[in-house]
Automatic annotation (TrEMBL):
Cofactor: FAD
Membrane topology type: Peripheral membrane protein
Major site of localization recorded for this protein: mitochondrion
EC number: 1.3.8.9
Stored InterPro entries: ACAD9/ACADV-like_C, Acyl-CoA_DH_CS, Acyl-CoA_Oxase/DH_mid-dom, Acyl-CoA_Oxase/DH_mid-dom_sf, AcylCo_DH-like_C, AcylCo_DH/oxidase_C, AcylCoA_DH/ox_N, AcylCoA_DH/ox_N_sf
The protein, known as: Very long-chain specific acyl-CoA dehydrogenase, mitochondrial
Family the UniProt entry places it in: Belongs to the splicing factor SR family.
Alphabetical UniProt keywords: Acetylation, FAD, Fatty acid metabolism, Flavoprotein, Lipid metabolism, Membrane, Mitochondrion, Mitochondrion inner membrane, mRNA processing, mRNA splicing, Nucleus, Oxidoreductase, Phosphoprotein, Repeat, RNA-binding, S-nitrosylation, Transit peptide
Originating species: Popillia japonica
C-alpha cells in the first residue's frame, strides 16, 4: 500500500501536479452572467452530492436517487389521484376546444371558469390555503393530461403555478403565504417577470430598478419586462429588479444586486401592452409589462434583498420537471394519431404499419416518450422523497423532453403524409406550439452549458481537494491511496468500471455494464479536459455542448434501466417491450457517447471547431451568406477598398503606410482625389473600412469604403460584347441579375424603403437597444448600430408613417447621454441622399460639379463614339490638351496650387498622372472617376 502511495506521489509530481494547479471551481452560471457572479471560494472539502449526474462528472456511479425507480405515492395519495384523473380527462374531451382557442387566440371565460372550479390553478398549493395540496408526482400525472390535449392552455396553467407564484411557495414568509396563496387559488392570475429587452439568457443583466424610498417603507420600481406569459391578465407578479446593496468588499459603498418582489397590479403604475402575435401557443396571453414608479412595500421583498438571482434559479429549477411531464403527454397523443393512421392506411397492397420504415419511426417515437416520461417521474419522485440534489436532472429533462417532443410530432406528421400537413389533423398546431419549449425557462443551449459547467465545477472541486492532499500526504493518506489504486490499475489496463449491474434485472445486466463503462470513460474525459483547459473551459462551448449531450444520454440510460427493471421485477404485462426499449436506447446512446467523447479528445475535431468559428465570423462580417451564387463565383469578393477625399499631397507610399497594418496589399491605384487599394484577404479590407473611415490622412479626413463593381481585368461582362466597365451596349446596369446589383451595393441590403440613419449614437447602444428605443415610434423591421460607421446606426420601419413618426418624436432626443439625429435615407441604385446632414462623401461642391461635368462630357463622347469608333480610337493631342484645360477650369484652385508648386517629386508625379490619364483616355474614352469603377494602373 505504501509503495503504491509513493508511486503515485512521484508520478503525480512529474506528470500531473502542474496541471492540477490549474483546476478551479467553475460557477455554472459564469457562462451566463460573468459580470455579476462572485468567485467561488472553497474552504475545506466539497460538499457531497447525491445527484447521479453530478457524480457522473467524477466518473462515479451514485445510485441512491436512481435505484430503485421511485414509488412515492401511498395508498391514499394514489386514490386521490385516480379521483382527479377522470374529471380532468372529461374536461378536456367535453369542455375545452384547443382548435377554437388557437383560432380565437385566447381561452374563453367558460373554459377558464371550469378550470378554476376544478382547482386546476392551485394543484400544489397546500389545502390550508385553498389548494389541492398535490405532491410532485401527482402534479406530474395531471400535467401529462394537459400536455396531451392543449399546450397553449398548459402555458396558462404553468405560467400561473409552475413559476408564477412558485416563489411564494418556496421563499415566502408566513405573512406572504397567508396573503397571496388563497388569492392565486381563487381567481387571480400570477406571472413570473424576469425577461427584459436587454436580458434574455443573461438574467444578471436586467435593468429594471427598485430604489428604497426616503421613508424606508417602499421600493420605487421602474422598468419593463417582455414576453411575459399571463402578462396581460396577471394580478400578482414575481418581479426581479436591480437594487443597491452594501458592498462587503468596500465598506460605505453599494453595488447592484437582483432582488425579487411580489408586485400587485393594484399598486398602481403597472400597465401591460397588447397580446403578442406568436407562432404557437396562441391562446396563451403573452405581453409586455411596464412599471412606472410602482410603490412596492418592503414587506413584499421575496427571499431577501440581493438574493433575487438565487430565487429565480430555484423557481426555474423546481418547475422544469413539469415541462418534461407535459412533453411526455404531448408525445403520447402524437403517437396515438400516428398509430391510428398507420394501422388503417393501405398502400402497395399492405397496411403501412407493416413496412420497416414506419416501424422504425414508431419504435423511436415510443422510446423517446418512454425516456421522457421516466425522467419526469424519476425527478418528481426524488423531490417528493426530500432530495435537494436534482437541478441538473431537471435541466436535462427539460432539454431532452422538448427536443424529443419536437421530433415525435414531426415524425407523426411524416407518417400521416399530406393528411398530417392539414389543419384538421391537429398536428400542425401541436408542432407550432412545441417550438417555444426549447426556448423559454432557459434555452436548451444555455441549459446544456449549465449542465456541463455545473458538473465540471463539482469535478474540479474534488480534483482541487486531491491537489491539496498532495501538499500534505501524511494527513490525507486515505484519499491518496484511494486515488492511487484507481489510477495505477487504470495505468496498467486492469481497471474495471464502477458497476451497478447488481441493481438491475439480470436480463439488463449487459446494458448496465455498458453504461458503467461509459461513466468511467466520461470521468476520465472530464479530468483530461480540466487538465488541458483549466479555467478557460468556460469559453470552449463546442466541447461543453458535447460533454452535456453525453451526460444527457448516460442519465437517460440509467433512468430507463431503472424503470424497466421495476417492470420486469413486478412482472407487468408491458415488461418485455420496456426491456426492448431500454436495451435499444442504451445501445444507441452508447454509440453517441463514444462519438462525443472521441470528438472532445480529437485534435482533428478541435481543428474543425476552429474552422466553424471562422465560417461564422465570415457570415457575420458579410451580413449573411458570404459566398456568391455559383453562377458568378468567378468574382472576387470584397478585397478592394475605395479611398476618397484625398489631398493632392498624398502619394502612393502614404496610402501604403496608411493601410499597412491591416494586411498584405496587392495593389494601389491612385487618381486625382481618390484611390483604390486591393488586399489579399477580404477580412483585411473589412477591418480597414471599419477602422479608417473618417480618419485623417495628411491633415484631411478621408472616406474609406468597400469598392463597388469589379476590377477591369475580371469584369463579368467581358466576353459578352462589353468593354471596360459596365454591361454590354444596350443593357443597363440596373437590368442586371439581382445578385450582381446586390453585390455592387455598399452596406446592408435595404429591406424596406422607410429607412433612417441615426447619427451621434453612443458606443454603449447596441442594435437591440436602438431597436427597442425606436419601437415607440412604430414597427421596426431592421436595425443595426456601429456596423457601417462608428456612432451611427440604421433603422428600417414597416411603413412610411412609422418613419415620419420617428423623425417627429425622436429626432434630437437623448439616448444613453447623447442627442441623436435622425436623417431619412433615400437610396436609389445604392446611393444615399442626406439633405439634413452636414456630412457628405464629397468635401467640395466644386469637385462635385467637376465630376458631373465629366459625366456629361463622357456621355457626349460615348455618343460620338457610336458614330465613329475609329475617331474615338485615334484622339489628337489637341483634344487631350483641350480636355486638360477644361478640367483645369473646372477646378481652378487645384490647378493654381499645382502650377505654383516647386517640388520636383510632385511635378514628376503630376506629369506621370497626366500621361497615364492621356493613355487611359485614349483606351477607355475618358471614363469619369467614380467609386463604381476600378482603375487599372497598367492602362
Amino acid at each position: 500500500m505504501y509503495r503504491t502511495g509513493a508511486y503515485l506521489l512521484q508520478t503525480a509530481q512529474k506528470t500531473k501536479n502542474l496541471s492540477l494547479q490549474r483546476f478551479f471551481s467553475v460557477t455554472a452560471t459564469q457562462c451566463l452572467t460573468p459580470k455579476n457572479q462572485e468567485k467561488t471560494i472553497n474552504k475545506g472539502p466539497p460538499e457531497d452530492d447525491l445527484s447521479f449526474t453530478m457524480n457522473l462528472f467524477r466518473g462515479h456511479v451514485e445510485t441512491k436517487q436512481v435505484f430503485p425507480f421511485p414509488q412515492t405515492l401511498n395508498e391514499d395519495q394514489a386514490d386521490n389521484l385516480r379521483m382527479l384523473v377522470d374529471p380532468v380527462n372529461k374536461f378536456f374531451q367535453e369542455v375545452n376546444d384547443p382548435a377554437k382557442n388557437d383560432t380565437n387566440e385566447k381561452v374563453d371565460e367558460k373554459t377558464l371558469s371550469a378550470l378554476w372550479e376544478l382547482g386546476a390553478f392551485g394543484l400544489q398549493v397546500p389545502q390550508d390555503f385553498g389548494g389541492l395540496g398535490l405532491n410532485n408526482t401527482q402534479y406530474t400525472r395531471l400535467v401529462q393530461i394537459v400536455g396531451a390535449n392543449d399546450l397553449a392552455l398548459a402555458i396558462v396553467l404553468g405560467a400561473h403555478q409552475s413559476i408564477g407564484f412558485k416563489g411564494v411557495l418556496l421563499f415566502g414568509d408566513e405573512n406572504q403565504r397567508q396573503k397571496y396563496l388563497p388569492r392565486v387559488t381563487a381567481g387571480e392570475f400570477a406571472a413570473f417577470c424576469l425577461t427584459e429587452p436587454s436580458s434574455g439568457s443573461d438574467a444578471g443583466s436586467i435593468r429594471s430598478r427598485a430604489v428604497l424610498s426616503p421613508d424606508g417603507k417602499h421600493y420605487i420600481l421602474n422598468g419593463s419586462k417582455i414576453w411575459i406569459s399571463n402578462g396581460g391578465i396577471a394580478e400578482i407578479m414575481t418581479v426581479f429588479a436591480q437594487t443597491p446593496v452594501d458592498d462587503p468588499k468596500n465598506p460605505g459603498k453599494t453595488i447592484d444586486k437582483v432582488t425579487a418582489f411580489i408586485v400587485e397590479r393594484s399598486f398602481g403604475g403597472v400597465t401591460s401592452g397588447p397580446p403578442e402575435k406568436k407562432m404557437g401557443i396562441k391562446a396563451s396571453n403573452t405581453a409586455e409589462i411596464y412599471y412606472d414608479n410602482v410603490k412596492v412595500p418592503i414587506e413584499n421583498v421575496l427571499g431577501g434583498v440581493g438574493n433575487g438571482f438565487k430565487v429565480a434559479m430555484n423557481i426555474l429549477n423546481n418547475g422544469r420537471f413539469g415541462m418534461a411531464a407535459g412533453m411526455a403527454g404531448t408525445m403520447r397523443a402524437c403517437i396515438q394519431k400516428a398509430v391510428e393512421f398507420a394501422t388503417t392506411r393501405t398502400q402497395f397492397g399492405a397496411k403501412i404499419d407493416t413496412f420497416q420504415g414506419i416501424q422504425e419511426k414508431l419504435a423511436r417515437m415510443t422510446t423517446l416518450q418512454y425516456v421522457t416520461e421516466s425522467m419526469a417521474y424519476m425527478i418528481s419522485g426524488n423531490m417528493d422523497s426530500g432530495s435537494k440534489h436534482y437541478h441538473l436532472e431537471a435541466a436535462i429533462s427539460k432539454v431532452f423532453g422538448s427536443e424529443a417532443a419536437w421530433y415525435v410530432c414531426d415524425e407523426a406528421i411524416q407518417i400521416l403524409g399530406g393528411m398530417g400537413f392539414m389543419k384538421e389533423a391537429g398536428l400542425e398546431r401541436v408542432l407550432r406550439d412545441l417550438r417555444i419549449f426549447r426556448i423559454f425557462e432557459g434555452t436548451n443551449d444555455i441549459l446544456r452549458l449549465f449542465v456541463a459547467l455545473t458538473g465540471i465545477q463539482y469535478a474540479g472541486a474534488h480534483l482541487k481537494e486531491l491537489q491539496m492532499a498532495f501538499k500534505n500526504p501524511t494527513a490525507n493518506l486515505g484519499l491518496i491511496f484511494e486515488e492511487a489504486s484507481k489510477r495505477v490499475v487504470r495505468k496498467v489496463g486492469l481497471s474495471s468500471p464502477p458497476s451497478f449491474s447488481h441493481l438491475v434485472h439480470r436480463d439488463l445486466a449487459s446494458s448496465a455494464n455498458d453504461v458503467a463503462k461509459l461513466v468511467d470513460e466520461y470521468g476520465q474525459a472530464i479530468e483530461n479536459v480540466l487538465i488541458k483547459y483549466g479555467k478557460s473551459i468556460v469559453n470552449e462551448q463546442y466541447i461543453l455542448n458535447r460533454l452535456a449531450n453525453a451526460a444527457i444520454d448516460i442519465y437517460a440510460s440509467v433512468v430507463v434501466l431503472s424503470r424497466a427493471t421495476q417492470s420486469l421485477n413486478d412482472q407487468k404485462k408491458t415488461a418485455q417491450v420496456e426491456k426492448y426499449m431500454a436495451e435499444s436506447w442504451v445501445l444507441e446512446a452508447k454509440q453517441r457517447v463514444d462519438m462525443n467523447l472521441r470528438t472532445v479528445a480529437s485534435g482533428r475535431s478541435l481543428d474543425n471547431f476552429t474552422k466553424m468559428s471562422s465560417i461564422a465570423k465570415s457570415v457575420c462580417d458579410a451580413g449573411g451568406v458570404p459566398h456568391n451564387n455559383p453562377r458568378f463565383s468567378q468574382q472576387k469578393m470584397g478585397t478592394r477598398v475605395f479611398v476618397g477625399g484625398l489631398t493632392y499631397r498624398v502619394r502612393e507610399r502614404d496610402i501604403e503606410k496608411f493601410f499597412r497594418k491591416y494586411g498584405r496589399i496587392k495593389e494601389v491605384a491612385m487618381k486625382n482625389g481618390f484611390a483604390f487599394v486591393e488586399f489579399d484577404d477580404y477580412r483585411d479590407a473589412d477591418d480597414a473600412v471599419y477602422e479608417l473611415n473618417g480618419k485623417e490622412l495628411l491633415g484631411e479626413r478621408v472616406s474609406v469604403e468597400r469598392a463597388r463593381g469589379t476590377p477591369r481585368g475580371s469584369d463579368q461582362w467581358r466576353g459578352s460584347g462589353g468593354r471596360g466597365y459596365g454591361p454590354p451596349r444596350g443593357r443597363s446596369r440596373d437590368n442586371r441579375d439581382p445578385d450582381l446589383r446586390a453585390h455592387d451595393r455598399y452596406g446592408p441590403p435595404t429591406r424596406t424603403e422607410y429607412r433612417l440613419i441615426v447619427e451621434n449614437l453612443s458606443s454603449r447602444v447596441s442594435w437591440q437597444d436602438l431597436k427597442d428605443y425606436m419601437r415607440q415610434a412604430g414597427e421596426v423591421t431592421y436595425a443595426d448600430a456601429h456596423k457601417q460607421r462608428r456612432n451611427e446606426g440604421v433603422v428600417e420601419f414597416a411603413s412610411y408613417s412609422d418613419m415620419k413618426n420617428a423623425i417627429e418624436k425622436l429626432d434630437d432626443s437623448e439616448l444613453n447621454g447623447r442627442r441623436i439625429r435622425l436623417i431619412e435615407d433615400r437610396r436609389r441604385g445604392g446611393r444615399r441622399s442626406r439633405s439634413s446632414s452636414s456630412r457628405s462623401r464629397s468635401r467640395s461642391r466644386s469637385r462635385r460639379r467637376s465630376r458631373s461635368r465629366s459625366r456629361s462630357r463622357s456621355r457626349s463622347h460615348r455618343s460620338s463614339r457610336s458614330k465613329s469608333r475609329a475617331h474615338s480610337k485615334s484622339k489628337s493631342p489637341a483634344h487631350s490638351k483641350s480636355r486638360s484645360k477644361s478640367r483645369s477650369r473646372s477646378n481652378p484652385k487645384r490647378s493654381k496650387s499645382r502650377s505654383m508648386s516647386k517640388d520636383k517629386d510632385m511635378s514628376k508625379d503630376r506629369s506621370h498622372s497626366r500621361s497615364v490619364s492621356k493613355d487611359r483616355h485614349s483606351k477607355s474614352n475618358s471614363r469619369s472617376p467614380t467609386k463604381d469603377n476600378f482603375l487599372d494602373k497598367n492602362a
